[in-house]
Amino acid sequence: MTEQPILSGDEIAALMGREEPSARQEGKGEPRPFSFGSGSAQPTAALPALDRINERFARRIRDLIEPFIRAKPKVVADPAVLRPLRDWQAEQRPFVGLSLYSFKPMKGTLAVSVPSEFVSRLVDSFYGGTGADPAGEAREFTATEERLLARLTDSLVDALAEAWREVAAVEPTLRGRETSPVLSGVGGPDETAAICRFIVTPPHSRPASIDIMFPAAALRSVEGALAAKSSDEASARGEEWRAKLNAALADIRIEARTVLARPELSVSELVQLKVGDVIPVSIPAMVPLLVEGRTVALGSIGEQDGKAALKVDRITRRISS
């Protein structure tokens, strides 16, 4: 599961023995001015709806990667999180496959990040190899790797647009490709983005993560549509649950019985009963149909197909469905 880190990008860089330019310029321990209320608000309704879109999209990722590795990988969508871009950049390796797209009419730039070693593994599998890790850390893509990366990311974004069209009619357009996470093109390092991470695990191989980043402003522009879709899906799931519950209850067997007569005997008559005694009874015109001790209907005694039967003449208690 992807969680928002406790440490900032500057702190992570310091622990790794690197000092960010911002830290050198401002000096250690110097307070920085901050205007409360100036930061971007979190699109609260967007993230739950985004998670549901990502769950459906994860199944499409599996189908898109299968032709490259000739097997079905396992794909799991982590919950979407809002993070400053610099925190995400601090986690990345210096060399990645980064593809940038506009997602009109949404604002800003969508980015798809694929680890360089995963691209190499896909190429190796595609040409009959085992999909093993490359010998060393790559510094540039080969022409074959560039073509495969372009084919993969274009297919991913097209499938993502299909998943999004239930919320908004979006049209993706390629804006460029980068190999450095610092040049993400999504926004400045202090800007906030929604990080959608998909963990791809090929059979008999270690997992890799594919990240898709939306600018927070892009999600806020469609937050109303996402909230409405979330409400519709919740209502639909409630109705589906009710239908399944009713179907399950409908198959439950319950005991129904009827009582023809209730004769009364004294204790002395009861203790003197012997075989052959006749107890007079009177059958009423209307006989109750009992379920769990409750009268649900009244009817008259008759015969059907050679068997005694009860004809329902009146419903006294309606069983709700």
What's the gist of this structure?
The chain is α+β, with helices and mostly antiparallel strands. Helix content is 36%, strand content 24%. The chain has two domains: 9-23 and 39-238, Chemotaxis protein chec (3-Layer(aba) Sandwich); 254-315, Surface presentation of antigens (SPOA), CATH 2.30.330.
Give the SSE map.
Elements: H1 9-15, H2 21-26, H3 46-69, E1 74-77, E2 81-84, H4 85-91, E3 96-104, E4 109-115, H5 116-126, H6 143-164, E5 171-178, E6 192-201, E7 208-215, H7 216-221, H8 223-250, E8 256-258, H9 267-271, E9 287-291, E10 294-304, E11 307-315
Antiparallel strand pairs: 1-6, 2-6, 3-4, 3-5, 4-7, 6-7, 8-9, 9-10, 10-11
What features would you describe in this structure?
- By secondary structure, this protein is of the alpha+beta class.
- It folds into 2 domains: 9-23 and 39-238, CheC-like (Chemotaxis protein chec); 254-315, Surface presentation of antigens (SPOA).
- 36% of the residues lie in helices and 24% in strands.
- The protein has 9 helices and 11 strands.
- Helix 3 crosses helix 6, helix 3 (46-69) packs across helix 8 and helix 5 packs across helix 6.
- The protein is elongated, with a radius of gyration of 34 Å.
